[in-house]
Design a protein that fits this description.
heterodimer; A: alpha+beta; Cytochrome-c3 Hydrogenase, chain B; 3-stranded antiparallel beta sheet; 17 helices; B: alpha+beta; two-stranded antiparallel sheet; 7 strands
Chain lengths: 390, 132
């Protein structure tokens, strides 16, 4: 009988299918994965610590750079947390625009997921098509906020500026054309034998284990746990919209694929409902101690100028206390825990990134899998290192 | 088993007859949105920079990339004797524009900022004024 030896292989940090600078130390018995140890921290920028030296306003651009594939979801979670601490009510129009953009962000993030996941498994066509559609959302981002990725569009109390003329038309065009594109991806993948063989039965994690590991988002729902913060703990007016929360049964990569594909279709439905309910109105809360005054007042009145100077130079104090606010980001539960000592800067900000927690389950999911299936497992977890390392 | 693969092939083939979406940069330039946050420019009024050196932009800048030095002109008015932006530190968040109380700074559609030397990335007042 031939003697076998466990081989340790280093995968990453520069590896195309680790979706960033993730390093995995894999212990292999032949082609079978015995153990996977993720090594993280290559992209650590110290966002949590940096925020302690920035005002609440200046922290918003930092949050863009967490999950850089879904910047507006990060902005949303952060501003909601600060608003909760301040006790500010955001006007309905701002809330609705936030929902529209958060769902567009979900589309954008899931398009990158389907693209890279399919590319890892070998379907390059889907990658090209999905990036083509993602460009549409990026163009909208650029038109509305001025940047394709680091949007910094939301502000504490509302939005940084009114949407541009023709925003509704552009969003309608996206929601009208995207379901057809989803059909294209599904046409290429859903019944494709190679795709099925690579995904069915791959990366299985039971509902119980998924909860124990703290997995959230589509990865949790793929394991059959019916949990979505948008429905179960609504924020920013999500309770007004009707949508289905897709749930898988077989806890494998294919079910997570189905869940995310359905989620994109549901996101389109939410955007449609939000667009129909979009009414003119203010986009900033009636909170003069927090929000910048309108520019006309700054240019033309001395009161407006003083007001503007006060907020720009000092920031705004946030009452002493602590708060946790989480949102259903495209990758799972993104939470912000902010402690305030009554000053204009966070005393402590802790971010609960979904990818970080989801990555913890990789050892469980990959044990006993083939080395080639490991890339499929990384893809199905949909991780972003920007938010894991922060 | 073979049918789904043929269907997929049909989808790919149908794309052969569609117009390509690739933009042939740099031969073709992309259409940049009016709100785009690119290279900064200092606004001019009455042949002078509008900036009054109030120091709000260096204060709100999260990256601390703006350097302003105030001076006094012949009419005893405060003006920016020096105004520098370090583009290597700038994160293009647009907070300086948002904070400016006299509409003195704006962001242009210029996005090609590559250069050869580190010093070339420090945009002095003259270079920022050039943009008109």
């Amino acid at each position: 009988m031939a003697s076998t030896e466990i081989m340790t292989v280093n995968m990453g940090p520069q590896h195309p299918s680790t979706h960033g600078v993730l390093r995995l130390v894999v212990e292999l018995d032949g082609e079978i994965v015995q153990k996977v140890t993720p090594h993280i921290g290559y992209l650590h920028r110290g966002v949590e610590k940096l925020s302690e030296h920035r005002t609440y306003h200046q922290t918003i651009p930092l949050t863009d750079r967490l999950d850089y594939l879904a910047p507006l979801s990060n902005n949303l979670g952060y501003v909601l947390a600060v608003e909760k601490l301040l006790g500010i009510e955001v006007p309905e129009r701002a809330q609705t625009i936030r929902v529209i953009l958060a769902e567009l962000t979900r589309l954008k993030s899931h398009l990158v997921w389907i693209a890279t996941h399919a590319l890892d498994i070998g379907a390059m066509t889907v990658f090209l098509y999905a990036f083509r559609e993602r460009e549409k959302v990026m163009d909208l981002y650029e038109k509305i906020s001025g940047a394709r990725m680091t949007s910094s569009y939301f502000r504490v109390g509302g939005l940084s500026r009114e949407v541009y003329d023709g925003f509704e038309k552009d969003v309608r065009e996206i929601v009208d054309t995207f379901p057809g594109h989803f059909d294209t991806y599904e046409g290429l993948l859903t019944k494709n034998t190679i795709w099925l063989q690579r995904t069915i039965g791959n990366g299985v994690i039971s509902a119980e284990d998924a909860i124990d590991y703290g997995i959230t988002g589509p990865a949790l729902r793929g394991s059959g746990v019916d949990w979505d913060l948008r429905r179960d703990n609504p924020y920013s007016g999500y309770e007004k919209y009707k949508f289905q929360v897709p749930v898988g049964q077989n806890c494998d990569t294919f079910d997570r694929y189905k869940v995310r594909m359905t989620e994109m279709r549901e996101a389109v439905k939410i955007i449609k409902q939000a667009l129909d309910s979009l009414k003119p109105g203010p986009i900033l809360a009636d909170a003069p101690q927090v929000c910048y005054p309108p520019k006309e007042n700054v240019y033309n009145t001395i009161e407006g100028l003083i007001h503007h100077f006060k907020i720009a130079s000092e920031g705004f104090p946030v009452p002493e206390g602590e708060v946790y606010q989480s949102v259903e980001a495209p990758k799972g539960e993104l939470g912000y825990y902010i402690v305030s000592d009554g000053g204009t800067r966070p005393y402590r900000m802790r971010i609960r990134p979904p990818s970080f927690v989801n990555l913890g389950a990789i050892e469980k999911m990959a044990k006993g899998a083939m080395i080639a299936d490991l890339v499929a497992i990384i893809g199905t977890l949909d991780i972003v290192l920007g938010e894991i390392d922060r | 088993m073979i049918m789904p693969l043929l269907k997929g092939l049909g989808i790919t083939l149908s794309h052969l007859f569609k117009k390509p979406v690739t933009l042939q940069y740099p031969d073709e330039m992309p259409e940049v949105a009016p709100r785009f946050r690119g290279l900064h420019a200092l606004n001019i009024s009455h042949d002078k920079a509008k900036c009054v050196a109030c120091y709000l932009c260096p204060t709100v800048c999260p990256a601390k990339c703006i350097k302003v030095e105030a001076g006094e002109d012949e009419n005893h008015n405060k003006y920016a004797a020096e105004y520098e932006i370090d583009m290597l530190r700038c994160i293009f968040c647009g907070y300086c524009v948002e904070a400016c109380p006299v509409d003195a700074v704006r962001m242009t559609q210029t996005f090609e900022l590559a250069n050869y030397k580190r010093a070339d990335f420090v945009f002095t007042k003259d270079r920022l004024l050039e943009k008109k």
